[in-house]
Every structure is written in C-alpha cells, then in structure tokens.
Amino acid sequence: MKYMLLIWNRPGFTEELTEQDRTALFGEVDEIMKELTETGELIGGQALANPSQTLTVRLVDGNPEVLDGPFMESKEQFAGYLAVDCDSPQRAAEIAARWPDVRYGGAMEVRPIMDEAGTEM
C-alpha cells in the first residue's frame, strides 16, 4: 500500500537550533531517506519553500481569488512530504514517528494514497 507522509512543522524552527543540532537533524533525515531507498519503500518526497512564498486560491464572492500566504489558523505549516510504499499503515506510522521534525513540535500526517480506481473513498 502507498502512503503519503505529510510533514507539518513550525516555519523557521531550524534557525532556532544550534549548528550542531541542525546538522544532526539533517543527518537523521539523510539516514531515513537512505534506509527507505535501500528497502525500496521510498517512492519520492520533496521539501516545500518557505510559507511566505505561498499563494492560496479561495472562492470569494463566487469567484476564485488568488491571495498571498497560506493563511492557516495553525502554528504549523505544510513543509513537505514523503511518499512510501510499505506493507501496512503501522509501518508508515513507524517511519513518520522517526522523522526528526516531530521532536521539535512538528507533526507527520499519514494518509493512504488512493489507487486509480479510487475504491478507498
């Protein structure tokens, strides 16, 4: 089964870390990515640009309007994702639990990816 692991964190939190802690955090990410590549579980993933570069499209007075910013009522912002193909939701959650951002106040959302038939709905 394929899962999308959505990375939510507090923008700028890495700048608050010491250089040593930042290096350790990115080292952990590299290790997880290497492991998932070796096991064949990694499908893909990307980090996202700073939320200040975000545009949001909302319906305003019946018309789509493009607005600056994410405008989320949350301390966390969507920061990136991993797509994995693993045996169970428990394995996907295990991978998410190891993601270092979680220790720094972030969260990982684990969501199954629908197949082309969309039978999961």
Automatic annotation (TrEMBL):
InterPro entries: Dimeric_a/b-barrel, YCII. Residues 1-115 form the YCII-related domain. It comes from the Bacteria. Belongs to the YciI family. This is YCII-related domain-containing protein.
